[in-house]
Amino acid sequence: MSSICLKVKWSGSIYEIDADPGTTVSDFKNIIKDKTGVLPERQKLLNLKHKGKPASDDAKLEDLNLKPKMTIMMMGTREENLEEVLGPPPDVGDVIDDFDIGDEAEVELKDREEHLAKIQRRVKDYEVKKLNDPRPGKKLLVLDVDYTLFDHRSNAERAEELMRPYLHDFLAEAYKNYDIVIWSATSMRWIEVKMRELGVTTNANYKIAFFMDHGAMITVHTPAYGVVDTKPLGVIWGKYSDFYSSKNTIMFDDLRRNFLMNPQSGLKIRPFKNAHLNRGSDIELRQLSKYLNAITKLDDFSKLDHKKWERYLQKRGI
């Protein structure tokens, strides 16, 4: 049986792969690994389906209704690139689930000297991926990616299928009053791929100020939870002190531990998971857009309790 020629598009490049029709998806991923260096477990093949569902690793290519020269979109990051950007994985002990981190830890962390020293080092040494200049008079919106804007665990034919509903409308509306920063705990290359595939960096209705990755994060020690990675907004405030501070910054993240250093600025967004099941009913960004508009005229965000954002809207009949 003759081989089938497929194209794999990844990180701006296209790789042609000849494979036997009887090749399983698992073996196909190993062939892709040889071409790109991306391990199979880090590959997300966006348009491989079997009977209308994401193809399992044991499915054969001949059963996937693939056309010759078909282009398969892939998202993924090489291990060496992750280590280059992130550094060696820290010894952080057991992974702590978000619901285990309570408000009592937040108060203990933000003013500790050793943590402030780490922030100052990030301010001095870390380089953001700048896309556009800050706009005087605008407030700041800092957004996580995975499970905040994008379901990074589900499979789909196109990245748009994993995008949180109302994303572009939300960003366009927010851009009127806020500079927008994307801060993910992954690598910069992975952020760039995701934002490009989702059409965020090319949308004409808004602009992103800059990207930040894991390198801007710090580790903090909590008595109750051990060592935890977190995103200190003080890095941004130190680098852009003429524009942003705790008074005009709000951060959306699905993990509370990511704003342990700045609990007064963080809003815990409901995680967007199982995109195929939930994208028809998820209205989180639409509602949060109303909240951003409602608070934009306030002089000091640090006096707000973002945990009660829905009550804030209800009280004002919004």
Q: Tell me the CATH architecture of the largest domain.
A: 3-Layer(aba) Sandwich
- Main sheet overview: 6 strands, mixed
Query: Average pLDDT across residues?
Result: 86
Q: What number of domains?
A: 2
> What is the gyration radius calculated from CA atoms?
21 Å
Do you know the CATH topology of the largest domain? Rossmann fold
Quick one: CATH superfamily of the largest domain?
A: HAD superfamily/HAD-like
Number of strands: 14
Q: What would you call the shape?
A: globular
User: What is the string of SSEs from the N terminus onward?
Assistant: EEHEEEEHHHEEHEHEEEHEEHHH
Unreliable parts: 81-100
- The end-to-end span amounts to 63 Å
CATH class of the largest domain: Alpha Beta
Distinct helical segment count? 10
Helix content: 25-40%
Give the strand order, joined by hyphens, for the main sheet: 7-10-9-8-13-14
Report the sheet-strand fraction.
15-25%
| Helix/strand class | alpha/beta
Indicate the topology.
Layout: E1 4-10, E2 13-19, H1 25-36, E3 44-45, E4 49-50, E5 53-54, E6 71-75, H2 79-86, H3 103-109, H4 113-125, E7 129-130, E8 139-143, H5 167-175, E9 178-183, H6 188-197, E10 210-212, E11 218-222, E12 226-230, H7 234-239, E13 249-253, E14 266-268, H8 275-278, H9 284-295, H10 309-315
Parallel strand pairs: 1-6, 8-9, 8-13, 9-10, 13-14
Antiparallel strand pairs: 1-2, 3-6, 4-5, 7-10, 11-12
Report what the structure shows.
With 318 residues, the protein is of the alpha/beta class. It has two domains: 4-76, Ubiquitin-like (UB roll); 85-315, HAD superfamily/HAD-like (Rossmann fold). Helix content is 28%, strand content 19%. The chain has helices at residues 25-36, 79-86, 103-109, 113-125, 167-175, 188-197, 234-239, 275-278, 284-295, 309-315; strands at 4-10, 13-19, 44-45, 49-50, 53-54, 71-75, 129-130, 139-143, 178-183, 210-212, 218-222, 226-230, 249-253, 266-268. The strands form four sheets. The chain has a six-stranded mixed β-sheet, covered by helices on one side. A four-stranded mixed β-sheet has the order 2-1-6-3, sandwiched between helices. Helix 5 (167-175) packs parallel to helix 9 (284-295) and helix 9 packs across helix 10. The longest helix is centred in the middle third of the chain and has 13 residues, at 113-125. The N and C termini lie far apart (63 Å).
